[in-house]
Design brief:
This protein is an alpha+beta fold and about 675 residues long. It has four domains: about 5-285, no CATH class; about 300-445, GAD-like domain (Gyrase A, domain 2), CATH 3.30.1360; about 505-605, no CATH class; about 615-670. The radius of gyration is 33 Å and the shape is elongated. The protein starts with 17 loop residues before the first strand and ends with a helix. The relative contact order is 0.10.
Length: about 675
């Protein structure tokens, strides 16, 4: 039940909704298997220094431990892509796959075990690195190293506990910079700065009960990870993947969910898509006289599905026609240019699909409504083409009704039949249309298990819809990594981890509640992870006043923390002015407190960063009040604010603002009596 054009009204419980999360968080340590720093270089394709080494490779799928080739890897190899790798300063022979990997980074292991303990997970006795086949070019070796660390954890959310299935430690992939088309296939350029950066991967059980609960779970996991204070912050440092299914659909993994606010909408749109495709499958089956598809995938009968698959294959044969000549006179600039470059306009019949593929329309919430035509286009795009034209949306795009009719006659189609056209180099158009036919046949079945990606426009989700990325990988992609030694997790090590867990967010908030700082300061200190430094400064040898220390941490940062602590101490003691803090902290070379106290006191005196005395302040106040007497009588005590800046300017910034304010208030009161 439910209206696919109103996704927010769909009932998760009634539709047999299941959902789990996979969180990938970069750790603030060195690279996992190479002892290189995890520094990222924010270069675009045009900014890469010319001296960085560049190499080119092609990858192929290999057999896994079971002797079979993973379905996702096989598909990637068919795309005939080549890869260019740019070697950043923090990537060496290991990142280039020209040297064997080193053992696990000790800091990364400690962090992943800490996270495991915080989730009450059970560590494995020994950490065995595994190779996970990846043939999209994002790993120079053709695989990603992944190590299981713990299982059977738990995290609490407002809507209930969510079990944690596994916690793994793995390498991040290379960062894509550019892609371009060539006559033989796509060429993709990667930079290797991110390759090998440690990630903690956390996969939940399908305990999430609603789209909103998924957002709560992602927030709870992100908060716990930040509580370690040992994970990277910033854009791209954490990624959420959603595993979503309805009873009438099947498991789909959705990547690219970086913004938590979008998670509920992305999930609801996937629910609508699965429901629409289930209804379409039964519509197609009914027209073909085939048994209906059960609304619960657990009731699927393999013999029945095999029969349906044979019928679909017979009804939709892979017959490719060249319609280049027919379209050579169309009004589409894109088509004419492509044909002029030697590309072909190839076409396949889709028997029985007229009116089934749909046209572009939006649902009640502004997102593109689910339709088969978009699924067919997604399948074609996996071959690297820009897309397809299908008959449900024609005539349009410069293709006339006469040309559509010519294609119908050429393919001997009936009113119930449809067709799809792809314009690309012949080998690529053939591969794309093979994918289209394969996906059209699957329309008779439950949705395929696959990895999908959120459609992004200008750095954020376009409308929450997704597009097919690759088949869902199977067990054949994993096999042991023999170059990395097995790491035993001793009980003593685990006990040490459990006894020294970091404070939770709640504990950190309670700890700084006792300090005399504003609520805004408290929130900023916690958000910027400065509470440990606040406590150290307020409780340390110098006993820096909490309010002043909090302001300094937020204003000046932590680049030279010991010098900043000494400078604020001297400022609060009246030894140096506020204006002296920034230059002296920037120039400080020592981290020894006694040396800094002596040096800053001396430099403040030599450079004129010492506060003016009370007599000097009174003289300056008297002069200003004499000049602004009319203003003071008009504004009363309200004149203090404007006059503060005038007095401080007259004193060259060398006065204590509190002293100036006190003397101004007293003298204005005397004047107005």
């Amino acid at each position: 039940m439910g209206d696919v054009h109103a996704p927010s009204t769909l009932d998760p419980a009634a539709l047999g909704f299941m959902c789990g999360l996979e969180i990938h968080q970069q750790l603030a340590t060195g690279k996992l298997h190479s002892r290189m720093p995890s520094e990222l270089y924010e270069f675009g394709m045009d900014d890469v220094p010319p001296e960085w080494v560049v190499s080119k490779r092609k990858l192929r799928a290999s057999q896994g431990e079971s002797g079979s080739i993973d379905v996702a890897a096989r598909f990637e190899q068919k795309r005939n892509r080549s890869f260019v790798y740019i070697q950043s300063p923090n990537s060496g022979l290991i990142e280039m796959d020209d040297a064997p990997p080193l053992a696990h980074d000790e800091d990364a292991v400690e962090v992943v075990l800490t996270i495991s303990a915080m989730m009450d997970a059970k560590p494995v006795p020994a950490m065995q690195a595994m190779r996970k086949t990846v043939v999209d070019g994002s790993n120079t070796s053709g695989f990603q190293r992944t190590t299981l660390a713990s299982t059977n954890g738990k995290i609490s959310t407002p809507s209930g506990d969510v079990r944690i299935a596994v916690i793994c430690l793995e390498e991040d992939s290379a960062r894509k910079l550019d892609s371009s088309k060539t006559p033989t296939g796509e060429m993709v350029t990667y930079t290797l700065d991110r390759l090998g950066v440690p990630l903690v991967e956390i996969a939940t059980e399908p305990d999430i009960t609603s789209p909103e609960h998924a957002k709560e779970t992602a927030l709870a996991l992100g908060t716990l990870l930040r509580d370690t204070r040992r994970v990277r912050r910033g854009l791209g440092s954490i990624r959420q993947d959603l595993n979503v299914s309805l009873a009438c659909g099947d498991r789909v993994e959705i990547k690219g969910c970086q913004d938590l606010e979008w998670i509920p909408k992305i999930i609801r749109l996937e629910m609508a898509r699965q429901l629409h495709m289930y209804r379409l499958a039964n519509e197609l089956r009914e027209e073909a006289g085939l048994p209906p598809l059960p609304s619960d995938r657990r009731k699927t009968e393999r013999p029945v599905e095999n029969r349906v698959a044979l019928a679909a294959q017979s009804k939709i044969p892979l017959e490719i026609y060249d319609v280049s000549e027919t379209l050579s006179g169309c009004d589409s600039t894109r088509v004419i240019e492509a044909l002029g470059m030697g590309e072909k306009a190839l076409c396949v019949p889709l028997n029985g699909f007229s009116g089934k593929m749909g046209s572009k329309e939006k649902d009640s919430e502004g997102a593109q409504a689910p339709r088969l035509g978009r699924e067919l286009a997604s399948a074609a795009k996996l071959a690297g083409v820009a897309g397809i034209f299908h008959s449900d949306e024609l005539p349009a795009y410069g293709i006339s009704q006469d040309q559509v009719d010519s294609i119908i006659r050429e393919l001997s189609l009936s009113d119930a039949d449809a067709f799809a056209i792809c314009i690309a180099p012949q080998w690529q158009a053939e591969l794309a249309l093979e994918s289209v036919v394969s996906r059209a046949r699957l329309a008779y079945h439950r949705i395929p298990q696959e990895v999908r990606n959120v459609v992004i426009r200008k750095g954020q989700p376009e409308d929450g819809t997704t597009t097919a990325m690759r088949p869902l990988p199977g067990g054949a992609r994993m096999y042991p990594e023999t170059d990395v030694p097995v790491l035993e997790i001793l009980p003593k090590k685990w006990d040490e981890i459990c006894e020294s867990l970091p404070l939770s967010s709640l504990q950190r908030a309670e700890r700084i509640d006792s300090y005399d700082i504003s609520q805004n300061q408290k929130e900023s200190i916690l958000n910027n992870e400065l509470d440990d430094l606040l406590v150290e400064g307020a409780e340390g040898d110098l006993k820096v006043p909490a309010k002043a220390w909090a302001s300094a941490l937020l204003e000046f940062g932590i680049s030279n923390i010991r010098a900043l602590e000494v400078a604020i101490h001297l400022r609060e003691k009246g030894v140096m002015t506020r204006e002296g803090v920034s230059p002296l902290v920037a120039e400080a070379q020592s981290e020894d407190t006694d040396h800094l106290l002596e040096w800053m006191t001396s430099e403040a005196s030599l450079r004129g960063f010492t506060p003016a005395g009370d007599n000097e302040v009174e003289t300056a106040v008297d002069e200003v009040m004499k000049e602004r007497e009319d203003f003071i009588r008009e504004r009363g005590q309200g004149a203090i604010g404007p006059l503060m800046g005038v007095v401080m300017g007259k004193l060259g910034g060398s006065a204590d603002g509190k002293v100036v304010s006190k003397i101004l208030r007293e003298k204005i009161s005397e004047m107005l009596e």
